[in-house]
Amino acid sequence: MLKAQKVRLYPNKEQQKIISSQIGGVRYVYNRALALRKFAYSKFGLKIGKFALINHITKLKKREKTSWLKEIDSQAIQQSIGNMDRAYQHFFKGGGYPKFKSRHHSKQSYQYPQRVKIEGNNLFLPKVGWVKCKGLRKEFVGKIKTVTVSYEAYQYHASILVDIKEKERVSSHNSKAVGIDVGVSLVVADSNGRKVKPLDLVKELSKLRTKAQQLSRKKKGSKNRAKAKMRLAKINLKIANKRKDFLHKLSKQYSENQTVVVEDLKIKNMTKATKGTVEKPSKNASAKRALNRVITQQSWGLFFELLEYKLRGRGGQLIKVDPKFTSQTCNECGHISKENRKSQDKFVCTSCGHSANADINASKNILARGIHGNNASLKIAV
Ligand SMILES: [Zn+2]
Fold first, then answer.
1. What are the pLDDT digits (tens) for 357-378?
2. Is 279 one of the catalytic residues?
3. Edge-to-edge strands of the sheet including 188-190?
4. Pick the catalytic residue: 73, 85, 190, 263?
5. 94 and 179, same domain (yes or no)
6. What is the pTM of this model?
7. Would residue 205 count as lying in a domain?
8. Would you say residue 173 has pLDDT above 80?
9. What's the 346 CA to ligand 1 centre distance in angstroms?
């Protein structure tokens, strides 16, 4: 089984330069290989495979103009072409067409397939040398599969992927099952009657607003503008990290179960408006809400991914069900009606009078569907 860990890197000035040239070199190789492949296909209908592309790059190293490629880690180059090849495989299966990598993308990275060593709080990166790092867990042992070095918001990180032997896995077999209802904001309710407090980002978001305003007041091209930009990037990263941390903890808690049932987000329509909105929101406010919705949806996508990964590691399973009517169905008698939903959080059945928190009622329906099949709570419908 594969396990991943992300650590912060503290390269010195010289190492920063080398990392930056590795990133640039790998990006160059990726784009060059992609361009060649595209050209060969559009002009001659030829498919150029991974190994032919790697050979081509080896030839480029011998040309004077591109001899600087010798400075780039050769396995990182191969990895990059491998990634491009995978992007193509994905495209052939109906995914999007592989894109060129831009140096202006906010996150820059390159990957080592192996040869990275760990000693104490230091990582050995080929071409770069020993780099100090922070956040390595001692119990994180296994064969290193890949190490991805990234640069984002003026910080360096390494994502380390290791292969843990089967027998080292923790298995916790039990019959615990739970249904989870996720909301349009970052809130969770489950079939055990638990409501998780939403992540509090008020402080960070207000800071974000201030920093964004400060940035807008700075003169274009000025040093102060660059500084303000850096501060804004840092706070953005902090928010993203806090959100990820929250989802990691939450998924860890729920992975203690044998079975977790959630809504299939591909089916769920998260765009439904909040009840009781009378005022028409301004353009700005509705754009903001739309952005929030996208972030929330992405967060839940990540949450389910993390959860599934952690559950599998312990021998458990994640089941996704059709969320249709789960919020309008009475968990006591199965009666479905819009009228059952008295308000955003109050559920009162118009047939049997059962009353409950709306999200918890929904999570119980989700659990029932996961265990008895997708139409379980619809069988006794009106
Ligand atoms: Zn009822």
1. 999 999 999 998 888 765 544 4
2. no
3. 195-196, 188-190, 177-182, 259-263, 317-321
4. 263
5. no
6. 0.55
7. no
8. no
9. 14
Q: How far is ligand 1, taken at its centre, from the CA of residue 373, in Å?
A: 20
329 C-alpha to center of ligand 1: Å? 8
182 alpha carbon – ligand 1 mean position (Å): 22
* Active-site residue, from 73, 85, 308, 359: 359
Look at the block and give the residue holding tokens 């991974």. Answer: 50
pLDDT tens, residue by residue, 36-83: 999 998 888 888 888 999 999 999 999 999 999 999 999 999 999 998
Which residues touch 337 (CB under 8 Å, ≥6 apart)?
328, 350, 351, 382
Whether residue 285 sits in one domain with residue 156: no
Q: Which domain holds residue 290?
A: 172-197+256-382
Determine whether 181 is an active site residue: yes
Q: Give the active site residue among 85, 181, 190, 308.
A: 181
Q: Whose CA is closest to 25, among 110, 98, 105?
A: 110
Q: How far is the CA of 361 from the centre of ligand 1 (A)?
A: 11
* Chain segment 282-297, per-residue pLDDT in tens: 566 777 777 777 778 8
- Verify whether residue 264 is a known catalytic residue: no
In this structure, what are the phi and psi dihedrals at residue 251, rounded to the nearest 5 degrees?
-70, -30
